[in-house]
Fold these 2 entries.
Entry 1:
Amino acid sequence: MSEHELDPLEARDHLAMVDRILSRIDEPVCLGGLPYIVWGVVGGSTDFVTQVVVVQHGAPSLLWVSLTLMLAAVAFMIYYGMRLSRKERRGLLGRHIGNVFMISWITSLVMMLLASHIFSYWAQGAIWSLMFGAAMMYVGTLARSRISFAGGILLLLSIIAANYSYQYAGYVLAAGFIIGMGGAGVALSLAHGDE
Amino acid sequence: MDELLLSKIRLGAIAELLTAEWVTFPALLKSIGTTQGNLGSHLAKLVEAGYVSEEKTFVDKRPQTRYRLTPRGREAFKKHVTEMQSLLQRAE
């Protein structure tokens, strides 16, 4: 490749090459369904267990099941992140999506641990649904995934539904997580498989 | 125009890195379609100019080289593309 000033023909050729590369790279991100399934189950089981233990006075030891599932999900995400780092190419969009979920997760966790006097247990449950629902909708627009967007809407709708069935709020929020997030994960996995 | 980006291979490598957090050497080789040695020497020039950063890591106990676009490389690419577009406009 000679290194002289470009003439217009060469400039056109170079710009066409850049266009080709950028349009190839601009393909939609392939969202993996597994993290949605894992966090859908964890979120759903936490709301379910809270309803059983706090409202219906079930065995408090069930809370340990929630905690164990949460820790297992964190371990899974570390493994999942390590698997992603083995790929040949990591897009900026992929990193952005990871950051969106990480910020949602950390914000919800901090509110749960440090703001429990302000937010009652159902408010905390709703915060998890709200943060993850908003994150799923945002990621849905970023990755052009209707499944993720629809799942996010279902999570948000579950908060409204829980508001009008307060006695069973935990079950309703749990259903939101299982159907909205877990269901979206299953649909994404069926649509394009998990890597 | 940017002397370094007059090479089609180097311009292509920068364009590949533009929307990526990082890209491995084999992935760049596949998309640019040149020889290992040729790509290696072009990338070395980009690294030397501070347009691209090189990171050596181990994946599954095998060495892997990854490249990232630096802010300086991004700026140089934008400026170079703008200059090529103006050249075309002037020629039309």
Note: Chain A has seven helices and one strand.
Entry 2:
Amino acid sequence: MNDTTHPSAPDNSRAVADFSTQLLAATEPAPEHLRLLHQRLENSADAAGILDIAYTTIDSPVGPLLLAATEKGLLRVAFEVEDHDTVLEKLQSKVSPRILRAPRRLDIAAREIDDYFARRRTAFDLPLDYSLSRGFRGIVQRHLPEIAYGSTQSYKEVAELVGNPHAVRAVGTACATNPLPIVVPCHRVLRTDGTLGGYVGGLEAKTALLTLESVA
Amino acid sequence: MEMKPPFETIVTEHAAMVLRVCRAVLGPHTDADDAWSETFLAALRAYPELPASANVEAWLVTIAHRKAIDVTRARQRHAIPTDTVPERPSTIGNPGSADHDLWNTVKALPTKQRQAVAYHYLGGLPYQEIAEILGGTTDAARRAAADGIKNLRTTLRHPVKEAKE
């Protein structure tokens, strides 16, 4: 209003602001166009070898699951209770920020998980990336797939089987921090007295998985 | 320490802005799609090195500016008479006609004005950042954007219509 250098400035700047709002509205890209551009980016990033982490979300009887994979293999399976955004933020700081929603790399994992829940599959056969499993936890997590479908072991038994019989509590921690639940079956590890112990996806999910396997 | 979001967040938040900028500079065709793709591919490649405190919009518009120049040069190289490659129709999306009038009007602006309008009014960048991208002073960038908007408003006498893509 007090701009003496541009006497018509108030009116003019108002009109320019209106015009630029119209300009933005008129140039809003169609969502479908952006979706196709995104898909093109997924493909070219993968081809260029710079898609460090691809992820997708799938529906399952135990709620939506986040699946994330590197070029090496499946890196992370996460339940909704873990909060998918938080999981992705951790992946960006621990592994790489080059992360895109790019479902194609997860096609096989998604299909195998579907088959598992449909009782068409009792073991997973896909490359896993164990980079998030360090040290003793990693040793325990690599042992877990040896526990057969429909059977269980106690935390104590697992500790003995990995050659560290006194590390019962550490086995519990390893199961609780399993980055690949369902696929790496930490749900098959129970307390010695047969009670559930804990589970990264919540006890309801653990019960659901054990029930699914027991009626196979 | 400030956390950087996963790159997917960058794409989700800025995809539309970068496409507007590419279309304003290159027209609403496959050239703009190519520049968009090259921009985000280059951004993804460089993302691990981007400081968490960086201005992401300015970073993306700077890359888009360079990629638009690359695409323009590639088009000029391909425009030699012996080249029989026909102009490709847009493979994705078909800009409507009202939309087309607008883009054509933008396209008719002098280069500096077009860029300044794109980067300020569509990219949301302050004039200081635009001056760094285009060279020259902040005032010159402000004048170029003001002149560009004035020219657009004069040409588009009727109000801007909604795009019907």
Note: Chain B is about 65% helix and 0% strand.
